[in-house]
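pinned: reference chain
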Amino acid sequence: MRRKGEFSRMQLERDYPFQVAIHPELAREIHQLRFYPSIAPRTKTVLLRGEHRVVVCFGKEEEARAFMSHSQGEMVRAG
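pinned: its structure tokens
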């Protein structure tokens, strides 16, 4: 059951299709990244090549690519 105002994973995938996986250590300062206007209000965690990564999602590709270059992250496919 979903509560009112809760942001679902499906909504995250649909509205923020450009996703960058970063090391969990870098994700601790994620609240400081709000200068990217299209950043999603939440992150998700994935297992990528046997290592845990935090995925930061964006609504605009150019912002995701800029973040990727700053964070040494990598683009991942939504889904």
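why pinned: The chain has a mean pLDDT of 84. The radius of gyration is 12 Å.
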